[in-house]
Amino acid sequence: MPQIGWLEILSVVIIAILVLGPKEFPIALKKIGTYIGKAKNTINNFQKEVSSVTKDVDLKEEASSIDNKNKKNIEKNG
User: Fold this and answer.
1) Separation between Cα atoms, residue 35 and residue 26, nearest integer Å
2) How much is the pLDDT for 78?
3) Quick one: which of 10, 16, 48 has its CA closest to 31?
4) Are 25 and 17 in contact (CB under 8 A)?
5) Distance CA 73, CA 60 (A)
6) How far is CA 17 from the centre of its chain?
7) Could you list the pLDDT tens digit for every one of the 78 residues in the chain?
8) DSSP letters spanning the chain
9) N or C: the chain end with fewer CB closer than 10 Å?
């Protein structure tokens, strides 16, 4: 993965200021920040949902294996 240094960041900022203008640049930064925040929130919610579903599946598998062990013990003992 390529690394981005300070010189590259400074270059992008200068070009953005020249293209957008000094009045529009802060507005654009705010919009970009809002979009990044929404994307992070969406990804976080997705990860929580996947984690919740996998926990439910793991619990069901564990319960199933316990039931199978109990049935085998009952068959052996009785």
Assistant:
1) 14
2) 60
3) 16
4) yes
5) 20
6) 31
7) 678 899 999 999 999 999 999 999 999 999 999 999 999 999 999 999 988 888 877 777 777 777 777 777 677 776
8) -----HHHHHHHHHHHHHHH-TTTHHHHHHHHHHHHHHHHHHHHHHHHHHHHHHHHHHHHHHHHHHHHHHHHHHHHH-
9) N
CA diameter of the chain: 84
Residue recorded with tokens 């990804």: 43
Measured on CA atoms in the order 39, 45, 46, 47, is the torsion positive or negative?
A: positive
Quote the CA–CA distance of 6 and 36 in Å, as a whole number: 21
